[in-house]
Structures are given as structure tokens and as C-alpha cells.
Amino acid sequence: MGNWFKSGSPWIWLTAGAVSLSLVAVLGLLLLIGWKGLSYFWPAPVYQFDVDINGHKQVIIGEVYETKSVSVRQLAEAGVDVSAIEGERVFRYLIKTGNRERVELDFITLLETQINSRALADDIAVIDRIKNGKFYGYPISFIDDGESKPIEGLAQGLLAAEQVRDEIKVLQKTDIAAINHQLELLRQQERRHGKQPEFTLQRQQLDQRYAAVEQRLLDLRLRLENDALLVRDMVGTTVKLPIEQMLDIWYPNNLTTLEKVAHWGSQIGKFVGEDPREANTEGGVFPAIFGTVFMVLLMSVIVTPLGVMAAIYLHEYAGKNPFTKLIRVAVINLAGVPSIVYGVFGLGFFVYMVGGTIDDVFFSDQLPAPTFGTPGILWSALTLAILTLPVVIVSTEEGLARIPNSVRHGSLALGATQAETLWRIVLPMASPAIMTGLILAVARAAGEVAPLMLVGVVKMAPTLPVDDQFPYLHLDRKFMHLGYHIYDVGFQSPNVEAARPLVYATSFLLVTVIVGLNLTAIGIRNHLREKFRSLEQ
Questions:
Q1: Which CATH number fits domain 286-536: 1.10.600.10, 1.10.3720.10, 3.90.220.20, 3.30.230.10?
Q2: pLDDT of amino acid 59
């Protein structure tokens, strides 16, 4: 046994066990987040409950959102009447009833003893809407232009409503946006040169174009004004739902397994590709995905050359003196600074000082409304570039140190300058280490939230940083981020129960985005490593 310990085998097994345990824990956590998030999009069955609450019998229709076993003692301490409950524990059901505009809450809690019967609701429809969340009810008829028609015509009505909404969105994001952009440019010219007759004529022409687009929008909205769906809710009341507010309808209890899988995939696609709505508790997260990826790519473009140049100076040019040691200590210490401190620095230096100076010099005609002197995606990328700079510097310097000096000496002996040696020999051979530093930087930057709250991220961004208006790339705009979206939905949402599955789904999506970015960088690194390994041989 003593020889076994002296051989070091126990420590090898201990290390392997710890790594395996950590890997299992991480994979288990990812599976839990994925299951909790992706199961939200599955078409859950809708039940009809006949309940008796405090002597009042009623019918409740909804999805079983959560089932939990609670102790009778705990219910008694909470002030619940437990006189009719037998035993020490009882099941408590959280039912999602939807129909937010007709009931106070779209969730209701029922005890097992309050339910007289439970059965699948035959032919129940789940209707997804732009406002007020989902509606559960029994469709009666479809009203097309004021005329009652069979329910079979609803699919055509939903398709027409979607086409109208798409056309309205195009008009708002292209025509109206272009007119507003030209009006802003005209206002700036008037501030610089004063009001001129040609400016007045241009404004009149723009006003006429705006009035024409506005009339077109009004005509589109009136096209669906008389289209509606008559639905009977759980209390038997007939409700008229405007078609223009309806996004989708499905019958969860009538779907086959393949239809449920297709519906599940469709809902995930909408979650990834649509804009959020209802205070981020409904809809998709596409602006947050775009903002996260775009900000990380912009940060990578900034931090890589800065980190590589700093590492080249420290390893190739700087002498071994106290000043160089001080720089190395400073770089190491920068890696341990809390991220919120970087956010405060970015707000004070980049936003107020640099951005304010840019506004004074180049955008004085737009003041007091700031252009760059306000948080935006550029300042967020610069802040995170400084935050991740030590990682890139250390990784690149380690890569430079692994290159034998004989390679440098051989290049210099053949007549190359030191700069040519660095550019053509050393840096290509150190590129795998540079990519390693970039991978670590991306992994940290993509998940940071605290500094971004100060320098550019917002709850809801009206437009993306990229559009078809000159200069097409708007680095001064605020943006959405998946990490902040998780924080907002999880802790700032007015409807916590409805938002909880979206927290899991968005968390799983954020991990997926980070893994995707890292795998791309790892693939590039491995390609470079194999390329220069063959050159060495």
C-alpha cells in the first residue's frame, strides 16, 4: 500500500475522479436547464376541472403547470382550511388558465381535495395572441368581414392577418424609418444653415410621403377590423377575439405525436426568430441573440490586436527590468478586478469622456441629444475588450515563449528583420495560442452582464445595430443581450410564474450561443495547429 501511494497513482485517480464528477455535474446542469426550457414549447394537454372552492362549484380549464406535494401542517400555518383533508400530505396543482383579460391572474392554485373531477377538454383550442397571452376556449365561428362563417375558414383568416402584419412591419421599418431619417438630416441642415426655401420644400415633400404611408397603414389596419373569432370560455361566455391580435391556434388534445413534434419545433423557431412582447414574457429573443453575437464579435475584433501587440512588446522587445515586471503585475491584477468596476470605468471614460468629446467635435448640431455620449454597443465592446485583455495577453505570451529561439535566429541569419521574423514566422506559429486566448475571452465576455448594464444593454431595443439606413452599422445604438434578458425576465418580470420557463429556455440558448462561438474558434485553432505542425516537420 505504501508503494502504491508513493507511485502517485492515488492522486491520478483522485484527479480523474474529480474531473469526471465535475463533467457529470456540468452536463447534468445543462440537461436540467435544457429540459426545463425546451419542454415549455411542447403542446401540453388542457384539462377541465370541476372544483369546489369554499362551497362554490365552478369549472376551470387550463394546463397543469406544476404539481407539488405539500404537508397539511404547512397549509395550516399559511391559513388554509385543512379540516376536510385526510392524511399528512396533499397534492397542490398550479393551473395555467390564460385568458388574462378576463380573470385576475392567469394561474390558479388548487388542492387535490378541491377537485371533484378532472378530464381532458375535448376540442379545446389554445390561441396565441399579440397581447394578453394565451386564450383557452372552444371556437364557435369565424367572422369574415362581418359575416359569420364556419370555423374551417379561420386558417385563411390567420394567414391574411399575418400578411397584413408583415406589410405593416415593413412599412414601419423601411418607409417610415427612411422618412424619419431624412427629416433628421434636414433638421441638422437647418440648424447649420438656417431655414432656406429649398429646406421648406423638402420638408413639405417628406410630410406628403409620410401622410401617404400613414394612410396606407390605416387602410391595412381597417382591412381586418371586422374579422374576429367567436370563442366560448370556461365559464360559458362567448368572447369575440380580433383576428389581427391572433398569432396561432392549435388543439393540443387532438394532436398526434408527430403533430406535437412539428408544433414543438415551430414554437422553438418562433422563440429564436421573433421579437419579444408582453414585457419580455412572450414572443422570442432574436434581438438579444443578435446583440449578444454582434457585441462578442466586435469585442473580439478589438481585443485581439491589442492583446497580441501588448504580448509581443512584453516578450519580444521589453527588457527584463522593474518597469516590465510592474507591467506584468498590473496585467495579472487586472484579471482579478470585479467586472462592475470595468462597467463604471467604461461609463465614465468611454461614454462621458470619449463619447462626449466626439459629440462636441463631430455631432454638435445634434446636441443636446447625444449621439456617442450615451451608452451604446461600441462602448460595451470596448469595456469588455479591456475586461478580457489580460487573458489574451497571458495566453499569447505563453504561445510566444513556446517557440524555440532557434527559429528566430534562423530567420535573422537568413537576412530577415526582427519585424519580418515576427510577422512571417513567430506570429503564425503562435496563432493557436492566440486563438486559445480569444476562446477564453469570448467565453467570459458572452456571459458578462453587470458592466453591460452601465454601458449599453437595455430591456427592449427598438431597432438593431444594423439596418439599411446609412451608415448601415450603428455602433452608437443600445442593444439587447441574452444575459441581461435572463436577469430581466427572472427578477423584473410582472408575471413570475409565466416567465420562469423562459428563464430556463433563454439560459440554455445563451449556453448554446457561447458553445457555438467557442467551437468555431476551437475549429480555427485546431486547423492552425495542424497547419504549422506540418510545417515544423
A1: 1.10.3720.10
A2: 86
